User: Fold this.
Amino acid sequence: MTLPLVIIVSPALADANNGNWQTAWRWSRLLAGHYRTRIVKAWQPDEHPGAVALLALHARRSAASIAAWAQAQPGRGLAVVLTGTDLYRDIHEEVSARRSLALAQRLVVLQDQGPQALPAGYRGKTRVIFQSTTARRPLEKTGRHLRAVMVGHLREEKSPQTLFEAARLLRERHDIHIDHIGEALDPVLGQQARATMAACPHYRWLGGLAHEATRRHIQRAHLLIHASRMEGGAHVLMEAVCSGTPVLASRIPGNVGMLGADYPAYFPWGDAAALAELLQACRADMGQASSRIAGLQAKCRLRAPLFAPAAERAALLALLQDLT
Assistant:
């Protein structure tokens, strides 16, 4: 018996090595055995005939594929997965993104603050599906210094300037090391990263790394820094949580929706001084049984079951049952 076909539209494919691609690829694996899948950058009505559903990542960037499916298969089989730029910018500014909301039978958000960003009339057809990752054994960390890592391509939404400023504030602290992973999608931010590296001996910009290498860096770090201005549900947060590496995060809805409202290590978005203070506080009692880092690890362990692959698979299958 031939399994039904599901199309996953992702505006970014493998060469982009970003969150959209990671989501599309992981969903194709989670659905194996229940559905056949095809990941495409765009969908046209004459492609992949017989597909029973289309899962479109990004309301604005996939708007043409969403409209084409809605015209070819009106009222059936269409889910739109909303990114951070969708939720917190594009649906308020772009007609094409708002039209995608209206055309979809289901909307998917990737963290539990997401529905509140939508117009009230769309919340009833919205599902929260937390993304998942494999758990990794927490590694022993050095006590000689604190190592923090920030992961994200250098672009305005990720707020790398906050990290640059914090590194400069900490340049005299030889016991706090910062690694920064991500390609310079904005060349000006790449220049700023290089200037920060020249001025701050314990800040290293490592450029873009393969996914597995990035996960190893997260495992080895004492802390992950996540300074973003807007997020739909960042992969790197769950990868850190499921590696036993706690997070220092900007207090924005996308981060609160992943880590929980009571998580005790947020800093105001864009506040480099507050980030530097958190890093110093974590360093101050590092290694003690009741240290701040140990407390954050305990909070992350409570959150980790949300990001289990079995939970994501069950939510995806329930979504497709609704759609088909």
Summary: The mean pLDDT is 94. The longest helix spans residues 309-323. The domain at 146-306 is CATH 3.40.50.2000 (Rossmann fold).
